[in-house]
Amino acid sequence: MKGKKWYRKEDIAEEYEPKRFKGLGGKYINYREKKSVKKALGNIKNKKILDVATGTGRFSIMAAEEGGNVTAGDISLPMLEIAKNKAKRKDLIEELDFIKMDAENLPFRDEEFEMVMAIRFMHLVNEPQLFLKEMKRVTQKRIIFDTFSLLSLRVLYNKMLPMGSTLYKKKDIQKIAKNLDLKVKNKIDSFTMPFGFYRYAPDFTIKPIKNLDEKISKNQLGKKLSTVNYWILEKQN
Ligand SMILES: C[S@@+](CC[C@H](N)C(=O)[O-])C[C@H]1O[C@@H](n2cnc3c(N)ncnc32)[C@H](O)[C@@H]1O
């Protein structure tokens, strides 16, 4: 698991957001990801939520803004430091707990949280079932995570990514859910054009392409070709 070490380097942590979410395309990625995760979370007011691999805290802070009682964890201290500073700037530091942790062995009791999420994490992992089993242990009901699809335009550059990135077939996740006795409650298919396009395309191309992307994403072909899939799994009881 290369990503476990990759983000622990200070310069990599500092570059994380400026590299990915600047410019019109970058801002659009951030906006559209948050929209999907918000939908997957549903009403989280006063709910106890764990964000595994919070990184710079994008989704933890968003969940705290939505009224969630959020614990944000990551293995990288430099990433956590950035997340904490962001929460301070937004006057949300009291609403969040930041903890250094390894997703392989979460430092929490069984069923300590009402929901557990891990965004942009599964692509760093070689054995997803192991991590999902651990997330299942600490959640009372719901697990939310995203995967990057093998049947998508992301294949064009995925192998070049320095932190390593695993692509999944939808049936891989369905099989893991079955093995772990988890129900696939919902799946949100998003981004026909991969993140790499939005990161590097000139600003004037973003609006027409994103409009087309959103339109295609609603039909069956778009869903099949989606580069990002948000999974909502639930315990059966
Ligand atoms: C691509 S970033 C995603 C951050 C955030 N969720 C987001 O979407 O912006 C991946 C994060 O996973 C963290 N990570 C990698 N391996 C981990 C592990 N075993 N346990 C906890 N965090 C880990 C990295 O430090 C990094 O912050």
From TrEMBL:
<dbReference type="Pfam" id="PF08241">
    <property type="entry name" value="Methyltransf_11"/>
</dbReference>
<dbReference type="InterPro" id="IPR013216">
    <property type="entry name" value="Methyltransf_11"/>
</dbReference>
<protein>
    <submittedName>
        <fullName>SAM-dependent methyltransferase</fullName>
    </submittedName>
</protein>
<dbReference type="GO" id="GO:0008757">
    <property type="term" value="F:S-adenosylmethionine-dependent methyltransferase activity"/>
</dbReference>
<feature type="domain" description="Methyltransferase type 11">
    <location>
        <begin position="50"/>
        <end position="141"/>
    </location>
</feature>
<dbReference type="GO" id="GO:0032259">
    <property type="term" value="P:methylation"/>
</dbReference>
<keyword id="KW-0808">Transferase</keyword>
<keyword id="KW-0489">Methyltransferase</keyword>
<dbReference type="InterPro" id="IPR029063">
    <property type="entry name" value="SAM-dependent_MTases_sf"/>
</dbReference>
